[in-house]
C-alpha cells in the first residue's frame, strides 16, 4: 500500500528531491524534518525507496465508522505509528520508546524536532527531548530534511489540496555517537538539537525563530482573540453612538414641533 500511495502522490504532485543519495541503502537512520504541513509525512516517504516510520496521534487509528477505518488504513499504509499523546510526559516517553524500537529493527525513523507544524512558515526552536534522546540512545545518524512549499499544497483547514509542486532537500548525515550514553545531560540534548535545527535551516532557507512553535501558536491565538475582542468592543461602541445619534434626532424633531 505504501508504494501505491507513494506512486499516486508522485504522479499527481511531481515533488522534486535533492540529496536523495544521503539516505542509506540499509541500516537505521533518523530523518529530522521541518514541519510545514499535514502532508509532510506523506511526501517524504513517497520519494524514498525505503520505509520511513513517523509518530502519529492514536486517534487517527481508532476513529469509528467507515471514514475512521479508511483513515487508519491510510496512515498504516504510509508508515505512521500510533502513539497516545494524551498523557503528557508519558506520551513523550512512549514516542521515544517507539522510535528506538524502529531504529533497533534497522529501519528509518522520521521525526519533527519542532514538535508541531509551523504556524507561519518560519522554522522554530527544536524540542530536545525526542530527537536527541533517540539519537543518543541508538547511535543512529541524524539526516536533516527540509520540506519546501508543502504548506501551499495543503494549508491548515483546507480539505482539497492545491496542485503545487513541493520539494524536499535531504542533507548529509550527522554523527552524534561522541555523545552516546549522555542522553541524561540536558545541555548535550540542547546542543544536539540546535545543531540539527541549524542544518535544517540551511537546507530550507526558512527564517529561524528561537522560541517553540507551541508558544508561537499560543501567542498568535491570544493576539487573534485580543483583536476580535477589540473589534467587538468597537462595533458595540459604534452601535451605541448610532443609537444615541438616532435618539438625539428624534428628540430634536419633537422639540421643533412644539
UniProtKB/TrEMBL annotation:
<feature type="compositionally biased region" description="Basic and acidic residues">
    <location>
        <begin position="229"/>
        <end position="239"/>
    </location>
</feature>
<keyword id="KW-0808">Transferase</keyword>
<protein>
    <submittedName>
        <fullName>1-acyl-sn-glycerol-3-phosphate acyltransferase</fullName>
    </submittedName>
</protein>
<dbReference type="InterPro" id="IPR002123">
    <property type="entry name" value="Plipid/glycerol_acylTrfase"/>
</dbReference>
<dbReference type="GO" id="GO:0003841">
    <property type="term" value="F:1-acylglycerol-3-phosphate O-acyltransferase activity"/>
</dbReference>
<keyword id="KW-0012">Acyltransferase</keyword>
<dbReference type="Pfam" id="PF01553">
    <property type="entry name" value="Acyltransferase"/>
</dbReference>
<dbReference type="GO" id="GO:0006654">
    <property type="term" value="P:phosphatidic acid biosynthetic process"/>
</dbReference>
<feature type="domain" description="Phospholipid/glycerol acyltransferase">
    <location>
        <begin position="29"/>
        <end position="150"/>
    </location>
</feature>
<dbReference type="GO" id="GO:0005886">
    <property type="term" value="C:plasma membrane"/>
</dbReference>
<feature type="region of interest" description="Disordered">
    <location>
        <begin position="229"/>
        <end position="258"/>
    </location>
</feature>
